[in-house]
Amino acid sequence: MTMPRTALSPDGPDSQDSREDVLTVDGVSARLGGREVLHDVRFTIRPGEFVGLIGSNGAGKTTLLRVILGLLPPAAGKVRVSEGGVGYVPQKIQLDPDMPLRARDLVGLGLDGQRLGIPLPSRSRRKLVDEMLRAVDAEHIGDARVGNLSGGEQQRILIAHALISRPGLLLLDEPLANLDIASEQEVVALLARIAREQRIAVLISAHEMNPLLPVMDRIVYLAAGRAASGPTDEVVRGEVLSELYGHHVDVIHVHGRVLVVAGRGDGLDIPLVPAAPAAS
Amino acid sequence: MNRVLTAIVEPGFFSSAPVHVALLVGGMVAVVSGIIGTFTVMRGQSYAGHALADISVTGGSGSFLIGISPLWGFAGTSVAAAGIMDLIGVRRPRGRDLATGIVRGAGLGLGALFLYWDTTHTSTTGATVTILFGSMFTIDSSVIPVVAAFGLAAVGIVAALYRPLLLSSASSDLAVVRGVRVRTTGALCLVAIALAVSLSALTIGAILSTALLVGPAATALRLTARPALVMIWSALIGLAATWLGILLAFDSYYWPPARQGWPVSFFVVALILIFYLLAQARPAGRGGKPGRG
């Protein structure tokens, strides 16, 4: 096996029982339009873990999330999800501003959106929705139309929608992509709090790892459809990522932030992952 | 007081049998269309609804040829067309539009042929106008049970699929993740739309039937952000437009130029437009941006 996965795998002494894992991705390959987008990706996530799925655009992050969600069948390999099920937060949903769907309606649909019949007004359901809105600091926008919300507000409502059914694992597709820096930090802090307090594992995809460094327990680094996973400081190292990318990269630490830079410094250096903004 | 009432409601309105049938059938159809229309608008399927209405012309004009109620023809062809559209329509929006357009074109072509035969080979006068623009005062009372059955079927479908339809209109990925069978849900919703469209084709005509489907719903979603209330408002607006339209049409028997009455469909569609414009002029209510409600 060429991947450093064996050395970095989480199958250490504290995870002997793999049945406890909320997610097992076992040798998953995936094809889109005849092209192999993922190759032999394997990692596991334990309850309450905060895991970053990091890779540049086109690395296969969204494809991997879609395979885990069952929206795309893998070409090879298996995905196993524990009983609690998976909550999913898409990057954005397209809804016209005048569509009659309030934030609290969307949150409630996370509880019973698959059920038949018109729900009768129920105090306990309303209470659950209110609690969930409070948990994502969105009580004040509960009655607003979803299509009228800003990117950050919509993000929090989608998180509430995904969490209300108490899944064991929360998957988020690039939740930071369309946010300004302030909302970005809010969403990261919110997710970290939820993962800790409710013991829900979080798998969050991002093309930029720096905003997640303070809260990430482990990392799944995707490049060219292959993955390396493990504790962040073990994966984000020059030799590991060089092998993953198939050419030399350096990992540079600057004031607690990480830069991944291609080349040997004797020619043109291309940062593969842009640095976080200087102000923090 | 009595004189004022007589001026608004011409004598004979409440004692006329055709008016009774018109009020009953028109009322049921308006309520069904209002409810189904809410989902048509939310799911962005107004064009599909329009195409189904056009295609129902084929069945309606065919029914005249063989001498059965046009309602059977309207419903038969539009439900069949809904099935075909779902079968050949890939899930991408553009594929869906293309499929809709192709089925619509084929149906209308056949409808043109049938309408030609209706006018040349049968003694039915006015078949074309009845099919295309409706004729509420000539509805046969024997279709009332059929209207009720089709209406209940359509409303039953969207009531059963209320939550899955809401969720998949927000995001089909979210719906799939929650275990909604999005394909089946969408196909059944299209059948409900087909039924609603053929019912309103019976009352206000195939060409105008989407006005009753889309207009009240588009108006209602300006009034409230709560999906269940939108359905109720939409049904009430459709009902008001239909009943007022029937009243005005009845009154218009005494109006110029011909003193033969104006078509009901004109009044219904005009009232829907007026309601819509009034709702547009109204400032956005609760459920807008936080802090403005």
Structure, described:
Chain A is of the alpha/beta class and 280 residues long. In chain A, 28% of the residues lie in helices and 26% in strands. Chain A has helices spanning 5-8, 61-69, 103-112, 123-135, 151-163, 181-198, 232-235, 238-245; strands spanning 23-32, 35-45, 50-54, 76-81, 86-89, 169-172, 201-206, 218-223, 226-231, 249-254, 257-262, 271-273. In chain A, α3 packs parallel to α5 and α4 packs across α5 (151-163). Chain A starts with a helix and ends in a 7-residue tail after the last strand. Chain B is mainly α. Chain B has a single domain, classed as ABC transporter involved in vitamin B12 uptake, BtuC. Chain B has 13 helices and no strands. In chain B, α3 (46-66) crosses α4. Chains A and B meet through α3 of A and α8, α9, α11 and α12 of B.
Chain oligomer state: heterodimer
Mean pLDDT of chain B: 85
The run of helices and strands of chain B is HHHHHHHHHHHHH
What fraction strand of chain A?
Answer: 25-35%
- What fraction, in percent, of the residue positions of chain B are helical? over 70%
Major sheet attributes of chain B: none
- Characterize the overall form of chain A: globular
Largest interface: A-B, 35 and 37 residues
Elements of chain A, N to C (H/E) = HEEEHEEHHHEHEEEHHEEE
Low-confidence stretches of chain A: 1-16
CATH architecture of chain B: Orthogonal Bundle
Gap between N and C termini of chain A: 40 Å
Total helical segments of chain B: 13
Q: What fraction of the residues of chain B are assigned to beta strands by DSSP? A: under 5%
- Identify low-pLDDT runs of chain B: 285-293
CATH class of chain B: Mainly Alpha
